[in-house]
Amino acid sequence: MDWAALRPSSKVDFDPLGTKFINGLPHDARRTASSILNRHRFRRYQDLRRSETAEGYSLRQFDTFKCIFVHIPKAAGISVSKSLFGNLGGGHVMIGVYRIVFSKEEFDSYFKFSFVRNPWDRLLSAYVFLKQGGMNDDDRRWWREQDLDRYRDFDDFVSNWVDRDNVETSLHLLPQYRYLCAPFTQTICVDFVGSYEHLDRDYAHVRERLGLPPDELLHLNKTPAAKKPERDFRDYYTAETREIVEHVYREDIELFKYSFS
For residue 116, what are the β-bridge partners? Predict the structure, then answer.
């Protein structure tokens, strides 16, 4: 079984069939079409509902708790997955994929949730994370392919690389609404969107909603202190770069009610 295909990486390489026509079909018809046209990937996800990879990815607990967790990169997803499920869940998988993995009855009845983060803060965090090597070889390969070392610092990177097309090449930089909305729409398909800024409070709400006793959130995959930005994220932006991010991530800012201040 090619479990490596399920490993999160920088590259955006799985679009649930990628056409407005297919994604416009009724749920179970779309699922059936995907199981035929993308059968190998479909089968791998179904296997993931019954087993766990060596790296720790599994959807078994989604069925156990009757929930679907959408893990947006750089929004405390590893901490949430490990705390709730004891593993990495499905990794960086979009809600459009889960609409194919699960039947309509399952998808409609399961509690679907995610966590989002201020786009200006998230972009800085992702830049630092990827510059320091990311999670795996795929992250490092993507960084080299984009030749991002040519930018002297974060300001240069935002000013001369960040645009609406370039951020689409990386799962870590992809706008957050793309993870939570039906493909080709801005219709959010999860029941609860928590925030990184109120992480402990919103995590407690998720546990309560799942019928789990209160418990502290594990804080995992944190950027080492020596590699973290030394100042508040706002201090890393100029008026120009602030506006660039506002344009590139305008859907996130509007949908999730964020502002620079």
Answer: 195
